[in-house]
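Changelog excerpt

This revision adds worked examples to the README so contributors can see how folded entries look when concatenated. The first example is reproduced verbatim below.
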Amino acid sequence: MNSDKHFKVVSISAFCTVHDFADSRRLGEAILKAIEKYDGTVAVFASGSLSHRFIDDQRAEEGMNSYTREFDHQMDERVVKLWREGKFKEFCTMLPEYADYCYGEGNMHDTVMLLGMLGWDKYDGKVEFITDLFRQLRYRPGKRCFPAACVRGVYAALYC
């Protein structure tokens, strides 16, 4: 990927299981400030989020194509609805508990950083879903893209 060095890539690895959301939000805000100083086109990709609880080994076969818990499924459906409707004030309010109760990958810090960059609970863009929420393998539950043209020309995507 990018073997011809056509694209300049800065990778930020942030499996932040012991960090505070406020820190990740500030990092997102700082990334936006750095991007604004750059004279060029920028795309930001974040990966992860939604519920991410893997099924216990003893039940692995029965749960390969289903949610581990119905609670997680219902919460993911609610989050998808909020994102589609651009209701990020509501989502940001519930995010700490959602990440905790639904075992968000990396405690959902990728989402916090991206939303910090987009304006946190002031962001009102509607999320474009490329696929529907699906259960298969409980990994990558629904690809989606945050259209972010409203953020001073920065394109952003949260890929799951």
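The second example, added in the same revision:
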Amino acid sequence: MPTARRTLTLTLLLVAAGSLIFTTGAAVVDGPADTAADGNLAVQPADGPNGQYAYLNNDDEIAIDVSASNPNIQDPCPVSSI
């Protein structure tokens, strides 16, 4: 029985180590990034009910804000919801 437990432990450790090693395989760390959609991709707040939490800031960058500082939310936590 100890041999089976040792084998299982070793297998799990190898799987965990392999997962940690290969998780960054898709990240561009020190090479050029894919820029195929640079001029053709636009991100904007949605028109749905959750679109009020996202807005374009002064630099025309999308900002996601669920706090009272968001200009699109008048009352972030109404008393009736508590």
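Reviewer comment on example two: Strands lie at 54-56, 62-64. The chain has a mean pLDDT of 78.
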